[in-house]
Design a protein that fits this description.
Layout: H1 2-13, H2 15-23, H3 25-28, H4 40-48, H5 53-57, H6 65-76, H7 82-90, H8 99-120, E1 128-131, E2 143-152, E3 155-165, E4 171-178, E5 181-182, H9 183-197, H10 202-207, H11 209-212
Antiparallel strand pairs: 1-2, 2-3, 3-4, 4-5
Helix pairs in contact: 6-8, 7-8, 7-9
Length: 213
């Protein structure tokens, strides 16, 4: 699990936390930003203006942790395609899984990500964030990478968000690459290793997923 632990360390620092901070603002900004009309770059840039509002509202989150986690999840769900990501993480093992197992894993996977984000995001409220302008017209594309630089306490991180447009015309985040480390591939590797550890028992992989993170 060395790769996973390396990724988890990155999650605990800035990469996934910035992902959360940007996208958690999506619901707050929904009244002024239309995900169906904005380009993915413009959407991310505009929601940046209201990021961290969830953190500010729940500064005393330790007193009611579950309420804080639920608030974070509520803000993430409209803009992150958890189901798509979770199914991709299962890889070929999804073919052997039942619909009930797939649905259960989606729920456990979502819980793990939300909990991780919520625990560390407050430490990065003073980060300097710069979104790079697209180098081509993306108006007719269905999948776009939004590149970003994040500077925190003297360190600079390069992030690339993979945004995909669904059939409803909504842009959803489906993957993230932090300084060359691919989120989807890292978690898919974790699932594969866990499947070997538990002799292909999908239920055991799901039951122990949060402990392996």
């Amino acid at each position: 699990m060395a790769i996973l632990r390396k990724w988890s360390a990155a999650v605990s620092t800035v990469g996934m936390l910035v992902w959360l901070s940007l996208l958690s603002a999506g619901v707050t900004a929904a009244s002024s930003v239309d995900p169906k009309k904005e380009t993915p770059h413009a959407l991310v840039e505009e929601v940046t203006g209201v990021m961290f509002e969830t953190v500010e509202e729940y500064k005393g989150g330790e007193e009611d942790t579950q309420a804080y986690y639920q608030a974070i999840q509520k803000t993430l769900e409209p803009v992150v395609d958890f189901e798509f990501i979770a199914k991709a993480v299962m890889g070929d093992h999804r073919k052997k899984a039942s619909e009930e197992q797939i649905e259960r894993f989606v729920g456990v996977f979502k819980k793990g990500l939300v909990t991780t984000y919520a625990k560390g995001i407050a430490s990065y409220i003073d980060s300097d964030i710069e979104i790079e302008a697209p180098d081509e017209d993306v108006s007719d594309k269905r999948r776009v990478s939004v590149d970003q630089k994040v500077t925190h306490e003297g360190s600079t991180y390069n992030l690339s968000y993979t945004m995909a447009q669904n059939r409803q015309g909504e842009w959803k985040l489906i993957n993230l690459v932090l300084d060359g480390v691919n989120l989807g591939r890292s978690f898919r590797s974790q699932f594969g290793q866990a499947a070997k550890k538990y002799d292909g028992d999908i239920d055991k992989v799901i039951d122990n997923w949060l402990d392996e993170m």
